[in-house]
Write a structure and sequence with these properties.
Low-confidence stretches of chain A: none
CATH architecture of the largest domain in chain A: Orthogonal Bundle
Radius of gyration of chain A: 23 Å
Oligomer: homodimer
Order of helices and strands of chain A: HHHHHHHHHEEEHHHHHHHHHHH
CATH class of the largest domain in chain A: Mainly Alpha
Strand content of chain A: under 5%
């Protein structure tokens, strides 16, 4: 291999290893670390983040990238090498915009905000979190200025999670989603009592819940021999390599859905990382291309597969055998209907497919308002309640069930939330294309077997890692840029059938 | 604070954070990582080790140390500042002797040797491990030459674990131990059937084992709010800060001792780290001063406390309540006697207090022979069996129960094993001094309450971290340099009483 490129790779490997080490420290922080260990852990993570930044943003790195680019001149633009250089040029330019002092401050502010948020949430006391959130908002504003922008301050932050997407585009898509879903949601809410989901709210011992969740994750394609399932308060997936892509779940002994669908959701994320091509390993291309496409994989497994009728016709007997008393007299179809009951609720992560996007639209609007200085942090709880009433017609009784429910604002990661809703739209579009390209997928899915769908995803999405931008990937895979139409068709058909709407 | 010293501290913190990050990656590797993740993990750890070395062995570091030393001229030699500089000068000089390329090779060889050893051990196939061990021995030889030595090649390796101790000193102590223990062991073996320990070998479900082990660890002083108990194949303790000092245990459903005494053992290690003074935090002084002194704390908790009559008179009823069927009709005194049954066996970590040191002497002799080129790796299995027969009068039926039983030789950490036996001697000497200085400790111990002993250890050992060398520490705490006499007195009294010897 070309020696300038090889020299670049050696440096890329080193930087990548540090990034993964930070993720291991973060995983451990969430899964095993005693709360008392937080101060030292934040110091350790801050040191590694500074080192990472120092190596990546160095003059040397810029020279290595350009020397490799020159040496590779003439390589196919679609080669791994050319794609890596394209990605590095972009992310290097971004990284150079952040002073090391800012990176340190970012790590420290987030490190201190997290335990404050945990306590504020546990005690339903927004005042404990407020000063931290004020710092986080200030950091997000500073970061936007450091990166720079042409149109909106939110753009450069969004771009870190969904490269190439503009705030205005998201706003337009969300406006269409809102307009089109409202009548469906109203019709469904009017017929809410046609679905009974009370049997989901019983005592479900955790051990058999875990057993079934592991079984279900395996059934949808998660490879435990290259993974691990941990227990946490706030579930996430992470990967340290394609051969060590982990999931986490929280187990609710009173409610089956949280652990079950949470596991499937995180399995979807981890399968994306497990499926990246081996020849991308140890480079920044060896991961999902954007938060939105990542979320499309988790929502695909959680909802399009995990909340499908075929899946439960195939697997419900096994679940019933683990909970014979709780699920006595319940049929596979009862279960399918119950786990799809749609209704306005307070908590995003427990929301159904129909109301979920409204939770996102709320956050998308509020975080822009805070970023732009139109909403003071002190006024967030009230603004949250107002928006919930406006969008979903309900008002959370506490801030814990309101603006304190999510971990995201312990970091200045504004721009992350909208990618959840984009993930729903990407997922529906990918699924429609998959079935069009290979109709056997629909038949397999009706029999509860997602293997052919997962094969299609591996081929069209997973293996490419971050070689393509999300915009390029969705066109390659589906022939179309992102559209909200497939999602509208998907929920209209599914919930129309579930609620007997014409 | 003096600004040259402050500058040094900033660099020391950074280097310390990287070292702790490596330990987090190592902990995760042992506790959670799927086997498939090993390749990437070894790369990540190797990168961090190279970075650590690069920062620590830099010219800049040497200049910072000397500038701070000059600026501090006149500070009390017993101040934290002066002690830190003394320690840094020594370890910096050592680190400078290792080329970065050697550090990388060390990490890679050990990283590959570990899974090979796991497989060789599982399959009782020494040939699988042999080529790795050959590389490890070659690295140890290379390391000894890089560090340099005056008398023996083993000296510089031993010094990394027990600073200031010479191989010849250890050899003399071990010769005395061997001479003095042999007659006692012979007498005890002749009366082996006076103690019945069969009830320890039954089915003991793991969940109540864990419950009791957590209770017992708390009873001896391990602080779970600043710790964590993990499950592993090869138990160890580790600390990421004084507020996050962890223990690990393996649980054997057929035998009570492994999980129970293993937990107490690792608690002793972790309590040492939890007890280091807060003002040493984030520096290399914030840890146990040597492997031998560290082991004295684990053996103190495991044996002198955990295998004492007083401890079981106080706590046996609770254990019995957890295992009413298995321990029916067993008295606290029966239990005390059973967990102290002394007999030659194959496995070091399950050995009693009397035979344990013989397991160490065997390893001490064999690793010197390999290091000095007097024993070829290919001949190790036979040499092991021969020495076992010579020292303990038994021959292991397999290499898994022989030379493949320990993890240590997956790394070139020759010099580590002898510190286990030194730990036994240090422990007895510290315990004798503690009782002399505060006779109430003996009374408390007779009632199963180690709190006053632990207080003494915190004051005399734990809080000092690595401020003093092991040689300095043992004199400060006990008034004497290391001697094997207290250990001889301890085992003679204890086993004399247990076996009715005159």
């Amino acid at each position: 291999m070309n020696s300038a490129y090889q020299q670049l790779l050696e440096k890329v490997y080193e930087i990548h290893d540090i990034e993964k080490a930070i993720q291991v420290l973060s995983w451990d922080k969430e899964t095993n670390m005693p709360a008392a260990g937080n101060t030292a852990r934040v110091q350790q993570m801050t040191t590694l983040r500074r080192l990472h930044h120092r190596l990546f943003a160095s003059d040397e790195m810029g020279e290595l990238i350009e020397a490799a680019a020159t040496a590779l001149n003439g390589a196919s633009p679609d080669s791994n090498e050319a794609r890596l250089i394209r990605y590095l040029r972009r992310s290097y330019a971004d990284e150079r915009k952040l002073p090391e002092e800012f990176v340190r401050r970012l790590s420290q502010v987030s490190g201190a905000a997290h335990p404050a948020w945990v306590q504020a949430r546990a005690e339903n006391n927004f005042a404990l979190f407020r000063p931290h959130l004020e710092q986080v908002v200030a950091l997000a504003q500073e970061m936007a200025e450091l990166y720079g922008y042409e149109d909106e301050k939110y753009d450069p932050l969004l771009d870190k999670f969904e490269h190439g997407m503009k705030t205005a585009e998201v706003r337009a898509i969300f406006a269409a989603v809102k307009t089109e879903l409202k009548p469906l949601l109203t019709a469904v809410t009017a017929r809410a009592n046609t679905i009974d989901d009370r049997f989901l709210h019983q005592q479900f011992p955790v051990a058999p819940q875990q057993e079934f969740a592991r079984y279900a994750a395996t059934a949808v394609g998660y490879d435990f021999s290259r993974g691990h399932l941990g227990t946490v308060v706030h579930p996430f997936a992470t990967s340290f390599s394609r051969d060590d892509a982990r999931i986490t779940t929280r187990w609710n002994p009173d409610f089956l859905n949280a652990g079950l669908f949470g596991t499937l959701h995180e399995s979807g994320h981890a399968m994306y990382e497990q499926g990246t091509a081996p020849d991308l390993a140890r480079t920044p291309l060896a991961r999902g291309t954007s938060s939105g496409i990542h979320e499309s994989q988790s929502r695909m497994l959680e909802n399009i597969v995990g909340r499908s009728r075929g899946f439960w016709q195939a697997h419900f007997p096994r679940l019933q055998a683990l909970f014979p008393a709780q699920l006595s007299g319940v049929t596979a179809d009862d279960f399918y209907r119950a786990v799809n009951k749609a209704q306005p609720t307070f908590i995003r992560v427990e929301a159904d497919e129909l109301t979920y996007n409204f939770h996102i639209i709320l956050r998308f609007e509020l975080e822009q308002a805070m970023l732009n200085g139109e909403l003071a942090v002190a006024d967030l709880p009230g603004a949250w309640r107002g928006k919930m009433q406006e969008l979903l017609g309900v008002t959370p009784p506490t801030d814990t069930a309101g603006c304190l429910q999510d971990i995201h604002w312990t970091r200045p990661s504004f721009g992350y939330f909208p990618t959840y809703a984009l993930g729903n739209l990407y997922a529906a579009q990918l699924y429609e294309a998959a079935i069009q390209q290979n109709p056997a997928i629909a038949t397999d899915m009706a029999q509860g077997n997602p293997a052919s769908l997962v094969s299609w995803l591996r081929e069209k999405v997973h293996r490419h890692g971050r070689k393509y931008t999300p915009g390029e990937l969705i066109i390659q895979a589906t022939g179309q840029p992102l559209s909200h139409e497939p999602f509208r068709r998907y929920v209209t058909a599914k919930f129309g059938e579930l609620y007997g709407l014409s």
